[in-house]
């Protein structure tokens, strides 16, 4: 059934919840490990965009901030530009980041819900395996993985 598939991912990062939150929400940080700037004021109801870094200002993904509880939880809609990403509907999915202390490290969980089918879930999975890996590497070593997430198999 369309719009019912979910992708879940969990990783553990040697960092504080505040560092992980900053890495998810600061455009300069997201450029470093994601290759795009995530731009918003991160308040519920606000728009967010994943903008290219080539100076074009083009947003490849956009959405709305549904929930923002620094430094523990961020929920956004996720859609192609122009899909009406402020609300759930056709072509709009939801991404939830959970950030929780786990002893001296952080457990980062990511859930991408409302995916339209197996092909969309597989495409999301390809990116979602690489993005948190690069974020983790950046926070633990000071540098991201040497390849853009979309260039990883």
Automatic annotation (TrEMBL):
Entry-linked SUPFAM superfamilies = Bet v1-like
- What are the Activator of Hsp90 ATPase homologue 1/2-like C-terminal domain coordinates in residue numbering? 15-140
What InterPro entries does this protein map onto? ASHA1/2-like_C (IPR013538), START-like_dom_sf (IPR023393)
By sequence similarity, the record places it as follows:
Belongs to the AHA1 family.
The protein depicted here goes by the name: SRPBCC domain-containing protein
Q: Which organism is it from?
A: Streptomyces chrestomyceticus
């Amino acid at each position: 059934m369309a719009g019912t598939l979910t992708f879940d991912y969990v990783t553990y990062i040697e960092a504080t919840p505040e560092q992980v939150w900053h890495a998810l929400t600061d455009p300069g940080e997201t450029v470093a490990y994601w290759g795009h700037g995530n731009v918003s004021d991160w308040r519920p109801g606000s728009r967010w965009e994943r903008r290219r870094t080539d100076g074009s200002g083009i947003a490849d993904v956009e959405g709305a901030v549904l929930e923002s509880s620094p430094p523990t939880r961020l929920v956004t809609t996720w859609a192609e530009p122009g899909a009406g990403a402020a609300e759930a509907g056709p072509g709009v999915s939801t991404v939830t980041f959970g950030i929780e202390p786990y002893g001296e490290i952080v457990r980062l969980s990511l859930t991408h819900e409302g995916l339209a089918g197996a092909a969309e879930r597989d495409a999301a999975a390809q990116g979602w395996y690489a993005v948190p890996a690069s974020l983790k590497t950046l926070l633990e070593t000071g540098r991201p993985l040497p390849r853009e997430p979309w260039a990883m198999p």
